[in-house]
Design a protein that fits this description.
Pfam families: SBP_bac_1. The chain has helices at 48-64, 84-89, 104-109, 131-135, 159-164, 176-187, 204-215, 231-245, 258-266, 278-285, 320-334, 344-349, 366-377, 387-393, 405-421, 427-443, and strands at residues 9-10, 16-17, 35-39, 68-72, 96-100, 138-139, 142-143, 146-152, 154-158, 194-196, 199-201, 221-222, 225-226, 255-256, 270-275, 294-298, 304-314, 397-399. The chain has 445 residues and is an alpha/beta fold. Strand 3, helix 1 (48-64) and strand 4 form a beta-alpha-beta unit.
């Protein structure tokens, strides 16, 4: 998962997207009368246009499905890693809820999601969702969720700062050495400029460590044991240490929590950060970045890239009529080209950032191609700024997050923070200590 508020995904149309609802049977017809489903993640009142778009979609769905009532809540964040486990274990989860990829196995194993094998046909384009994404929500031939987000990490960069520092925005860094050199030039612009932004806590430090080690060809976990105490792992920490203490190009403030780096990026004085393409959407829409300033390219080195995503799952307590209504809602709002989150014409009219290639869950299927065409036809963003990411994406090996990801990320936060705050940090010891702690976590199964 993304340890940020990953469920608040602005899938290029500007809608904040995550449903909560209840379940049904395997018929094509409407769920019938007297059914109420709850849907979470209604956009906040502070985003009136996207909130109205959501409410309009609810009204349209109810009109198309007589007898079905949709109740929205503007719960934010939709997914909170700090409360998710307790909420689902306590039976307090909504009837349709979002689950990050790192939690799929656990939720399915504990029977906290409904078997929807017999009703996947209610999501008309279910078969167009990438097979590897569908495989992740399938166990023993049974389907437990509808994949809805699929991403891979790249390098997000500020093209305007590149130009200001004498760098070519059309030739972004392809290696970590090039990232370091570019970061130094940007930092040299003066006080307040940060060449490369990085996290040191809140689980996102460890999350970015995983992204970085994968890009260099390293691993997080192999055969159930920690594998990050390696040459690649040391290179991640050494590069970050040197950028902080030799180059002074990563800033002096330790960033804890996903939004901190996003805010810094949006302020226009940070040159680069690791992130999926939706980072561009968030920086522009949530943190007032200038739309024309941002580009994304493939992750440095490109040996592999962290991939992740999320799916909608249904509470196992949902009855047949509720399940059916929920699947119809998921189909309508999240999986139909030109509707709901894929209504890019509406998004553009509302002033939303449209055009970022931030969700490839449909792949190159007919539905996927239709979504891409609609997105590009209605783009409000300079899509050419993202072309190097698109061109190289297929050649970069996708890596899933490791088992016990959040716990491992918390462990590695310590190492990331240490190299950012202590010039004399002992990288070998940091990794050795992290390895010991990680293996204890992994041994718990």
């Amino acid at each position: 998962m993304k340890p940020r508020n990953l469920a608040i995904f602005l899938i290029s149309s500007g809608l904040v997207l995550t449903a909560t609802a209840c379940g049904g049977d395997d018929s094509d017809s409407d769920a019938g009368g007297g059914v109420t489903i709850t849907v979470a993640c209604q956009p906040a009142k502070t985003a009136p246009k996207t909130r109205k778009a959501w409410d309009d979609d609810v009204a349209a769905f109810e009109k198309a499905h007589p007898g079905v009532k949709v109740k929205s809540t503007d719960q934010q964040p939709c997914y909170d890693p700090k409360t998710f486990a307790a909420k689902i274990a306590g039976g307090q989860m909504e009837t349709v809820f979002v689950v990050p990829v790192t939690n799929y196995t656990d939720v399915i194993a504990k029977k906290q999601a409904k078997d929807i094998t017999g009703v996947t046909n209610l999501v008309k384009n279910f078969g167009d969702i990438k097979q590897d994404a569908r495989d992740m929500v399938t166990k023993d031939g049974k389907v437990y969720g509808v994949p809805n987000v699929n991403y891979s990490v790249g390098l997000v960069y500020n093209r305007a700062l590149f130009e200001k520092a004498g760098l070519d925005p059309e030739a972004p860094p392809q290696t970590w050495d090039e990232v370091r050199a570019a970061a130094k030039k940007i930092a040299d612009l003066g006080d307040g400029y940060v060449g490369y932004g990085e996290y040191g806590g809140g689980n996102v430090g460890g999350w970015h460590f995983a992204q970085s080690i994968f890009s260099r060809g390293g691993e997080m976990v192999v055969d159930g044991k920690a594998a990050f105490n390696s040459a690649e792992g040391k290179a991640v920490l050494q590069t970050l240490h040197d950028m902080r203490w030799e180059d002074d190009s990563v800033g002096k403030k330790v960033l804890i929590g996903w939004e901190t780096l996003m805010q810094q990026m949006g302020a226009g004085k940070t040159g680069m950060m690791l992130g999926a393409p939706d980072v561009v959407t968030d920086v522009v829409q949530k943190f007032q970045g200038k739309v024309e300033d941002y580009g994304i390219t493939a992750i440095p080195e490109g040996k592999a890239s962290l991939t992740g995503g999320e799916a909608y799952m249904i509470n196992p307590k949902a009855n047949a009529a509720e399940t059916k209504a929920a699947m119809q809602w998921i189909d309508f709002q999240f999986n139909t080209p030109g509707k709901g989150r894929h209504d890019y014409a509406r998004g553009k009219a509302n002033g939303d950032p449209v055009g970022v290639p931030n969700n490839d869950y449909m792949g190159d299927s007919p539905t996927g191609q239709e979504i891409i065409k609609l997105r590009n036809d209605n783009a409000s963003l300079p899509v050419e700024n993202y072309q190097t990411y698109i061109d190289k994406a297929a050649s970069v090996t996708a890596k899933l997050e490791p088992a016990k990801a959040q716990e491992l990320y918390a462990v590695l936060d310590v190492a990331m923070s240490a190299v950012l705050t202590r010039e004399n940090a002992d990288i070998d010891k940091l990794l050795s200590d992290a390895e010991t702690k990680a293996n204890k976590i992994l041994a718990q199964g």
